[in-house]
């Protein structure tokens, strides 16, 4: 793609985001998902999962991460906002990074009905056995911390 826009999301808010690295001069967007923020869409994408609003602490954490990235911020329906952003920038497609959150895959499928979507592979922060629990960072970190310290040759 010559003129894509970039989609950043909650799992890919760091300087190593492959989409931001591959297309450093292209406009990027992050959308605060209104349904997710209100607790109307479970974080894990599981319709039977918890339906709790996103905490102010988590929103603050996301916002602080986003301040360090060259992204525009929007709020609303993610697919609608991304497509509007793409139209505003005359984009011919969307580039994002791979993730484990099933909501992102569903959003990409919706976007692909309008524009091509390229999903770039991500170098994982840590290799975990089994699926990652994305509902709460503390649960994820309890599992990941041991692996992180072990990879650095230290004990946690």
CATH class designation of the largest domain: Alpha Beta
Query: H/E series, N to C?
Result: EHEHHEHEHEH
Q: Based on helices, strands and strand pairing, what is the structural class?
A: alpha/beta
Classify the beta-strand content into a percent band. Answer: 15-25%
| Span of the ends, CA to CA | 43 Å
Low-confidence stretches: none
Q: Cα-atom Rg, whole angstroms?
A: 16 Å
Brief write-up:
The chain has 156 residues and is α/β, with parallel strands linked by helices. It contains six helices and five strands, in the order E-H-E-H-H-E-H-E-H-E-H.
Task: Describe this structure as you would to a colleague.
This protein is α/β, with parallel strands linked by helices. It has two domains: 4-123, HUPs (Rossmann fold), CATH 3.40.50; 126-156, no CATH class. Helices cover 37% and strands 16% of the residues. The chain is built from six helices and five strands; from the N terminus they run E-H-E-H-H-E-H-E-H-E-H. A five-stranded parallel β-sheet has the order 3-2-1-4-5. Helix 4 packs across helix 5 (102-111). The longest helix has 15 residues, at 137-151.
Strand-helix topology:
Blueprint: E1 4-8, H1 18-22, E2 28-33, H2 34-37, H3 56-67, E3 72-76, H4 78-88, E4 93-97, H5 102-111, E5 117-120, H6 137-151
Parallel strand pairs: 1-2, 1-4, 2-3, 4-5
Helix pairs in contact: 4-5
